[in-house]
Amino acid sequence: AACGSDNDAREAGTLDGSFHSPDGYALFNGQSSGRDRGIECAVTGDDEIVVMGYARGSDSNDILLLKYQPAGTLDPQFGDGGVVHYEYAEGRDDLGFGLDVQSDGKIVVAGRYYNGNDFDVLLVRFNPDGIPDSGFGMDGAVVWAGPGGGTDTGRGVAIQPDGKIVV
Predict the structure, then answer these.
(1) pLDDT tens digit sequence for 28-50
(2) 50 or 58, which is more confident
(3) How is 89-123 classified by DSSP, letter by letter?
(4) What are the residues facing 40 on neighbouring strands?
(5) pTM of the model
(6) Nearest Cα to 110, choosing from 93, 122, 92?
(7) Rounded-to-integer distance, Cα 3 and Cα 41, Å
Protein backbone atom coordinates (compact mmCIF):
# COMPACT_ATOMS: atom_id res chain seq x y z
CA ALA A 1 0.00 0.00 0.00
CA ALA A 2 1.26 3.48 -0.72
CA CYS A 3 0.13 6.79 0.68
CA GLY A 4 1.65 10.07 1.67
CA SER A 5 1.13 13.68 2.60
CA ASP A 6 2.28 17.03 1.26
CA ASN A 7 4.55 17.56 4.25
CA ASP A 8 8.28 17.43 3.58
CA ALA A 9 7.78 16.35 -0.04
CA ARG A 10 10.77 14.80 -1.81
CA GLU A 11 11.62 14.45 -5.47
CA ALA A 12 9.03 12.27 -7.18
CA GLY A 13 10.08 8.64 -7.47
CA THR A 14 12.70 8.64 -4.73
CA LEU A 15 12.45 7.04 -1.31
CA ASP A 16 12.45 9.34 1.71
CA GLY A 17 15.37 8.00 3.76
CA SER A 18 14.08 9.77 6.87
CA PHE A 19 11.05 7.43 6.87
CA HIS A 20 11.98 4.29 8.81
CA SER A 21 15.57 5.49 8.45
CA PRO A 22 17.59 4.74 6.45
CA ASP A 23 15.31 2.51 4.35
CA GLY A 24 12.55 4.85 3.24
CA TYR A 25 9.99 2.07 3.69
CA ALA A 26 8.61 -0.13 6.47
CA LEU A 27 7.76 -3.83 6.29
CA PHE A 28 5.28 -5.62 8.54
CA ASN A 29 5.38 -9.36 9.04
CA GLY A 30 2.77 -10.45 11.54
CA GLN A 31 2.14 -13.85 13.03
CA SER A 32 -0.06 -15.04 10.18
CA SER A 33 2.31 -17.17 8.10
CA GLY A 34 2.79 -14.43 5.53
CA ARG A 35 -0.90 -13.83 4.95
CA ASP A 36 -0.99 -10.18 5.96
CA ARG A 37 -2.68 -8.01 3.33
CA GLY A 38 -2.37 -4.23 3.24
CA ILE A 39 -5.33 -2.98 1.21
CA GLU A 40 -5.54 0.76 1.82
CA CYS A 41 -3.88 3.51 3.82
CA ALA A 42 -4.66 7.02 5.05
CA VAL A 43 -2.74 9.87 6.65
CA THR A 44 -4.16 11.28 9.88
CA GLY A 45 -4.30 14.96 10.81
CA ASP A 46 -1.06 14.57 12.78
CA ASP A 47 0.72 12.86 9.83
CA GLU A 48 0.54 9.34 11.19
CA ILE A 49 -0.10 6.64 8.59
CA VAL A 50 -2.83 4.05 9.06
CA VAL A 51 -2.58 0.88 6.96
CA MET A 52 -5.67 -1.33 6.79
CA GLY A 53 -6.35 -4.77 5.38
CA TYR A 54 -6.66 -8.23 6.84
CA ALA A 55 -4.54 -11.00 8.27
CA ARG A 56 -5.01 -14.68 8.91
CA GLY A 57 -5.79 -15.31 12.58
CA SER A 58 -5.82 -18.67 14.31
CA ASP A 59 -9.17 -19.69 12.78
CA SER A 60 -10.16 -17.02 10.23
CA ASN A 61 -9.19 -13.78 8.52
CA ASP A 62 -9.42 -10.68 10.72
CA ILE A 63 -9.27 -6.95 9.98
CA LEU A 64 -5.72 -5.66 10.39
CA LEU A 65 -4.81 -2.07 11.27
CA LEU A 66 -1.27 -0.71 11.56
CA LYS A 67 -0.49 2.83 12.67
CA TYR A 68 2.90 4.32 11.87
CA GLN A 69 4.36 7.48 13.33
CA PRO A 70 5.64 10.08 10.82
CA ALA A 71 9.19 8.70 11.14
CA GLY A 72 8.01 5.22 10.05
CA THR A 73 7.91 3.33 13.34
CA LEU A 74 4.76 1.66 14.67
CA ASP A 75 2.85 3.85 17.14
CA PRO A 76 3.19 2.18 20.58
CA GLN A 77 0.05 4.01 21.79
CA PHE A 78 -2.11 2.31 19.14
CA GLY A 79 -3.53 -1.17 19.77
CA ASP A 80 -0.82 -3.64 20.75
CA GLY A 81 2.41 -1.86 19.84
CA GLY A 82 0.93 -0.24 16.74
CA VAL A 83 -1.10 -3.26 15.58
CA VAL A 84 -4.83 -4.07 15.84
CA HIS A 85 -6.38 -7.41 14.85
CA TYR A 86 -10.17 -7.04 14.87
CA GLU A 87 -12.48 -10.04 14.85
CA TYR A 88 -16.18 -9.23 14.58
CA ALA A 89 -17.37 -12.83 14.64
CA GLU A 90 -15.15 -15.52 16.10
CA GLY A 91 -14.16 -18.15 13.57
CA ARG A 92 -15.67 -16.16 10.68
CA ASP A 93 -13.82 -14.12 8.06
CA ASP A 94 -13.76 -10.36 8.70
CA LEU A 95 -12.14 -8.45 5.84
CA GLY A 96 -11.37 -4.74 5.51
CA PHE A 97 -11.43 -3.10 2.06
CA GLY A 98 -12.12 0.63 2.62
CA LEU A 99 -10.55 3.13 5.02
CA ASP A 100 -11.01 6.75 6.03
CA VAL A 101 -10.00 8.84 9.04
CA GLN A 102 -12.40 11.35 10.58
CA SER A 103 -11.23 14.85 11.52
CA ASP A 104 -11.26 13.78 15.21
CA GLY A 105 -8.81 10.95 14.43
CA LYS A 106 -11.35 8.11 14.58
CA ILE A 107 -10.67 5.41 12.00
CA VAL A 108 -13.50 3.99 9.88
CA VAL A 109 -13.14 0.64 8.08
CA ALA A 110 -15.61 -0.81 5.58
CA GLY A 111 -15.53 -4.41 4.49
CA ARG A 112 -17.45 -7.60 5.03
CA TYR A 113 -17.88 -10.52 7.39
CA TYR A 114 -19.06 -14.06 6.80
CA ASN A 115 -22.37 -14.69 8.58
CA GLY A 116 -22.29 -18.47 8.07
CA ASN A 117 -24.17 -18.42 4.75
CA ASP A 118 -22.82 -15.43 2.81
CA PHE A 119 -21.10 -12.07 3.38
CA ASP A 120 -22.65 -8.92 4.90
CA VAL A 121 -21.26 -5.38 4.86
CA LEU A 122 -19.23 -4.67 8.00
CA LEU A 123 -18.49 -1.10 9.10
CA VAL A 124 -16.25 -0.59 12.14
CA ARG A 125 -15.14 2.65 13.78
CA PHE A 126 -12.04 2.73 15.97
CA ASN A 127 -10.91 5.39 18.42
CA PRO A 128 -7.50 6.98 17.69
CA ASP A 129 -5.90 4.46 20.09
CA GLY A 130 -7.22 1.46 18.10
CA ILE A 131 -10.04 0.45 20.44
CA PRO A 132 -13.44 -0.01 18.76
CA ASP A 133 -15.65 3.03 19.39
CA SER A 134 -18.36 1.79 21.77
CA GLY A 135 -20.53 4.81 20.86
CA PHE A 136 -20.82 3.63 17.25
CA GLY A 137 -23.30 0.90 16.29
CA MET A 138 -23.01 -2.12 18.56
CA ASP A 139 -19.61 -2.16 20.26
CA GLY A 140 -18.13 -0.13 17.39
CA ALA A 141 -19.59 -2.10 14.47
CA VAL A 142 -22.55 -1.91 12.11
CA VAL A 143 -23.60 -4.82 9.86
CA TRP A 144 -25.82 -4.50 6.80
CA ALA A 145 -27.29 -7.45 4.93
CA GLY A 146 -28.66 -6.42 1.57
CA PRO A 147 -32.05 -7.59 0.35
CA GLY A 148 -32.31 -11.10 -1.02
CA GLY A 149 -29.19 -12.58 0.56
CA GLY A 150 -25.97 -13.08 -1.34
CA THR A 151 -22.63 -11.38 -0.92
CA ASP A 152 -22.62 -7.76 0.27
CA THR A 153 -19.28 -5.98 0.59
CA GLY A 154 -18.23 -2.47 1.58
CA ARG A 155 -15.39 -1.72 -0.88
CA GLY A 156 -14.85 1.91 0.08
CA VAL A 157 -15.74 4.49 2.71
CA ALA A 158 -15.74 8.29 2.80
CA ILE A 159 -16.49 10.82 5.52
CA GLN A 160 -18.59 13.77 4.34
CA PRO A 161 -17.86 17.30 5.65
CA ASP A 162 -20.94 17.00 7.90
CA GLY A 163 -19.49 13.82 9.49
CA LYS A 164 -21.82 11.37 7.76
CA ILE A 165 -20.24 8.11 6.64
CA VAL A 166 -20.78 6.87 3.08
CA VAL A 167 -19.99 3.23 2.16
Answers:
(1) 887 656 578 899 999 999 999 99
(2) 50
(3) STTS-EEEEEEEE-TTS-EEEEEEEE-SSSEEEEE
(4) 52
(5) 0.89
(6) 122
(7) 6
